[in-house]
Design a protein that fits this description.
The chain contains 20 helices and no strands. By secondary structure, it is an all-alpha fold. The protein has one domain: Cytochrome C Oxidase, Chain A, CATH 1.20.210.10. The longest helix is centred in the first third of the chain and has 35 residues. The radius of gyration is 24 Å and the shape is globular. It starts with a helix and ends in a 17-residue tail after the last helix.
Length: 566
């Protein structure tokens, strides 16, 4: 069967079977990967707005010492819901949206391999998220922190502190649902890339976004079952007195920590690998150069995936394990910085000597490299065990993981939106609003979180609802909170830009940036079947090859546009 027949065939469960439905029903019943991706985008953005709002409440509580605007119980609820929302309901599903929407387009497929399972994975995610938030309406919200360490999650502990315990049950079942949906998505992505890419697209010609999404899917398949098993054990502890985590009955609370962080550290890379892929697509186009060291980038991605399962216990270096374990995980923590560093140098080398167009998407990529490097360097510091012992419960850790997750993942997501929004909607996001948003976010983010390194070094403990009036802490937290409001304003401008541009944005055309990969070979937005005709794939830049082949003999090779110059 040739390429056109593959993409024109009508398999069971494809979007063509849903074409008879109109309006809202077409979305509720859709199995089209593009509509599923848009629903992921929309839902995750709503959860992101909720999580960001909770963060603003927390920074308002911490704006001055001995502040009692919130009670300890209320602050713990908001703290727990903020972490849970950002990790499980906002950032990870937002990256999943990019994977679901663009992976089939970038490999020339007309849909994912299992369209119905793709739809089910979204609805499981939505139902799980709503179930977690349902605890708000029962007065039964979580109090135990997003990492849910026993005995904070035990029924007896909750009752002793006058906390109602069923909020933990909502959290457990909600995460089990979202975890099941994520595992389904991972299976779908892997099978789709293996089975449905166009025949000419060998592994060495895969777009780097697809490479990193595939490794990301493997991490999901290997890491999430550990979390799901721990959640089941926790549920059995709470309702059947199974005693997995009760040391008085022979259980061990460290079993939860090992299970949770065996998931939790690969989760860091689940949250960043698709972002690496976005940056690896955006920087070459806006630099008008092919990615430097394509093979090294792909191999480094595999190395990150492999090493990410050997570092989990660096979250536990203060738990009293043996020194031999400390040595192993300290070494692996330092080692994983090597393939990550390879990527950073490759991105810089791609820009070096390029004809760079500093559109908003490119600006977010440049800021990402700087901020993620800061987060990575502070993370390597924790490979030194005495430093980890001293700082692990301090605000230095808060600064570190916000630099990796917000300064890293969030900025790549923003780059992805500005790069691919024209393909999804057929309209351009406003570059003027985009640049205002960019500078507000860069200034707000670095002002809010860089200074928290010093709060940690000064001894400020994390996970507390207020703090004493010690030297410099009041000034540090005031500055952090004020800049957090600036960051929040930038995020609000982004949401305004999304909505305004959807109705009034400039028409984009099929390939406004002069992109090279297959998603730019179809219309904006793409038709239900994705492609009318797919160009041959002879390299990692099939559209550049096609344009070059259509030129008159002897003519100079066309420059690849990076969009409107700023």
């Amino acid at each position: 069967m040739n390429n056109s027949e593959i993409n024109a065939s009508k398999e069971p469960g494809s979007i063509l079977e849903v074409g008879e439905y109109k309006g809202l029903l077409s979305w509720l019943s859709s199995v089209d990967h593009k509509q599923i991706g848009i629903m992921y985008f929309t839902t995750s953005l709503i959860f992101f707005l909720a999580g960001a709002s909770l963060a603003m409440v927390m920074r308002t509580q911490l704006i001055k010492p001995n502040h009692h605007w919130l009670s300890p119980e209320t602050y713990n609820q908001i703290f727990t819901m903020h972490g849970t929302t950002m990790i499980f309901l906002a950032i990870m599903p937002m990256l999943t949206a990019f994977m679901v929407y663009f992976t089939p387009l970038m490999i020339g497929a007309r849909d994912v391999s299992f369209p119905r399972m793709n739809a089910l994975s979204y609805w499981l995610y939505l139902m799980g998220g709503l179930l977690i938030y349902f605890s708000f309406f029962t007065g039964d919200t979580l109090h135990m922190g997003w990492s849910a360490y026993p005995p904070l999650t035990s029924v007896n502990y909750s009752m002793d502190l006058y906390f109602v315990g069923t909020g933990v049950d909502y959290w457990i079942v909600g995460l089990l649902l979202t975890g099941a949906g994520t595992i389904m998505t991972a299976i779908n992505i892997l099978v789709t890339v293996a089975d449905l890419r166009v025949p000419d697209m060998k592994l060495a010609r895969l777009p780097l976004f697809v490479w990193m999404s595939s490794i990301n899917a493997i991490l999901m398949l290997l890491a999430l079952p550990a979390l799901n098993a721990a959640l089941v054990m926790l549920f059995l502890d709470r309702h059947l007195n199974a005693l997995f985590f009760n040391p008085a009955a022979g259980g061990n609370p460290l079993l939860w920590e090992h299970s949770f962080w065996f998931f939790g550290h690969p989760e860091v890379y689940i949250l960043i690998l698709p972002g690496f892929g976005i940056v690896s697509e955006v920087i070459p186009v806006f630099s008008r150069k092919v990615i430097f060291g394509y093979s090294f980038m792909a191999v480094a991605t595999v190395a990150i995936g492999f090493l990410s399962f050997g570092v989990w216990a660096h979250h536990m270096l203060a738990t009293g394990m043996s020194f031999s374990i400390y040595y192993v995980f300290a070494f692996s923590t330092a080692l994983i910085a090597v393939p990550t560093g390879i990527k950073v140098f490759n991105w810089i080398a791609t820009m070096w000597g390029g004809s760079i167009s500093f559109d908003t998407a490119m600006l977010f990529c440049v800021a990402f490299i700087l901020q993620f490097t800061i987060g990575g360097l502070s993370g390597v510091a924790f490979a030194t065990v005495p430093i980890d012992w001293d700082l692990t419960q301090s605000y230095f850790v808060v600064a570190h993981f916000h630099y990796t997750l917000l300064g890293g993942t969030l900025f790549t997501v923003m780059a992805g939106f500005y790069y691919w929004y024209p393909k999804i909607t057929g309209r351009m996001l406003s570059e003027k609003l985009g640049k205002i948003q960019f500078w507000l976010m860069v200034i707000g983010f670095n002002g809010a979180f860089f200074i928290l390194h010093f709060a940690g070094l000064a001894g400020m403990t994390r996970r507390v609802y207020t703090y004493p009036d010690l030297p410099h802490l009041a000034t540090i937290n005031l500055i952090s909170s004020l800049f957090a409001y600036v960051l929040g304003l930038g995020i609000l401008i982004f949401f305004a830009n999304l909505v305004i541009s959807l109705f009034k944005g400039k028409p984009a055309g099929d390939n406004p940036w002069g992109g090279w990969t297959l998603e730019w070979a179809t219309s904006s937005p793409p038709p239900p079947h994705n492609f009318d005709r797919i160009p041959p794939v002879r390299s990692i830049r099939p559209l550049w090859d096609l344009e070059r082949s259509q030129m008159a003999p002897g003519a100079a090779a066309p420059p690849s546009r990076g969009g409107e110059s700023s």
